[in-house]
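Human: My hope is that you can spare some time for a protein that puzzles me. I am handing you a single protein, as its sequence and its fold in token form. Could you go through the record with me and say what the backbone is doing? Take your time, and here it is.
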Amino acid sequence: MPIDLRQVSAIAGMSGLYRIVKPTRNGVIVESLSDNPTRMVAQARHRMSLLDEISIYTNDEEATVPLADVMDRIHQKYNGELPFGEKPSDDELKNFMSDVLPDYDEDRVYISDMRKLATWYGIVNKHVGFTAAEEEAAETTSEDEKAAEGKEEKAESKAKKAKK
């Protein structure tokens, strides 16, 4: 299961990413994902995009891949260390993108999008982390297994009672 990006947003015209803290009457309180987090109210005039709703264009029939899936692929392939420095060249970004998502649409995914993806991945990896989603998936799996075992035990006891 990919990372949970439902509470992480980008605000147009502002650098970085923001965690949604809680709603207010005229907007939402957001906290910057940085080393020195600051809080502010993002009002309706701010154009916010939840990272959970962003996708990357591909050439296949589905047409897009969710950003959470792409970030999960990056994490699995590079484990937090991107293969380039702080200011990668255009060729490095294209190679990186084709490694992570080989069927991305080269006509609709721009270099600026690739830079944003690399920057956002660094922020998410540092401040949100990928272990939470992995642990949730493991917990959900174990809860499902326990529920299935409980249903089997109930079915067995009903079958024994029916035989009596």
Observations:
- The radius of gyration is 21 Å.
- Confidence is low (pLDDT under 50) at residues 132-142.
- The CA atoms of residues 118 and 161 lie 61 Å apart.
- Residues 8-51 form one domain.
